Each structure stands twice: as C-alpha cells, then as structure tokens.
Amino acid sequence: MAQKTNQKTASKRPAARKAATLETLDAIDRSKPAKSRVKAKGASLTQLGRQTAAPADPERATLETAPNPQAGELYVARFTAPEFTSLCPVTGQPDFAHLVIDYVPGKLIVESKSFKLFLTSFRNHGAFHEDCTVYIAKRLVAAAKPKWLRIAGYWYPRGGIPIDVFYQTGEPPKGVWLPEPGVAPYRGRG
Prior knowledge:
alpha+beta; GTP Cyclohydrolase I, domain 2; 3 helices; 24% strand; disordered N terminus
C-alpha cells in the first residue's frame, strides 16, 4: 500500500512543480525594471528575458555579464557573428564582416543577448573596419575582464579589397585549446 501512495505522490510532483513555476512567473511584477526581475546566480541582467530595443549606437549599448559557472576551469568561449554590419564613415555605404571572437573567461562570462544588441548597434554606426573590430574587443575586455581574448574580423570587399583585422590581448594561457577561426581567406570567384 505504501508503494502505491509513493507512486501517486511521485507522479503528482512534476505537475505541482510546473504549477508553482507558473504561479511564480505570474507573480512577477512587470512594472518593476528588468534588473529586479532577471537574476543569474548573483547577476542582475536588465535585457535578458524581456523585449529590448536595439541601442542607437555602440556607445549607448550595455554589455552585461554573469558569474562564470566554471570559473575554476580553463576554457575558450566563442562568439561567431557571420552577418555583422556597420557603415562606412565616409560614404555611408554598408560594410559587412564575419566576426569570430574567442575569449578565456575569468570570473565573468558575457551575456549573449546583450552582446547581440551591442553588435546590432553598429548597423547605423559609421567607423572604419579597424576601429569597429578593435572597439568590440576592448568593450568585451572592459565588461568581462577575460583572462585572454582575440577577435578576427573578416571584412567583405568593397572596392575590390577585403580587409581582415586581428586583435588579441596577449599570449593565450598555457594549456588552453584554441580552435582555428574557421573562416577561409577571401578568394574572389576562383
């Protein structure tokens, strides 16, 4: 008899948990700022979990971080943005790049939604390829304070010349596995 009771109770637990989770979500006061609504083990995230407009320019964009859940491990996190867009500061024409960003997190990791919004803010921003690429790296370093970071900006040609921009903060930590960026150099049609 005790086994039947335990089985019935066990089968009701997932439904009870689901109902409790829904009640918790319903109880969230949507009038409060998102900072008070979204927590990631000690991090206050203001953009994740809610609709957020793209920043007007990179200076206004907020890069958010969260505590590194594997802070004791040496590993590489990679962001790949194959459709990055900015504007030429002289002509106003669009420039396109494939960005590959590798970093070795320290105590913090970069929250990806805030990073996507940060990259989106370049769509109406005029800057040379070199400036965009290095600026992105420096903002990531300032926000997350990684042990190491590198960025590869593979810019698509305009006027017949592709410009590739590479930046890193120093030597990578010993023992870390660094995969190849995986982007072939520009070859034209051939």
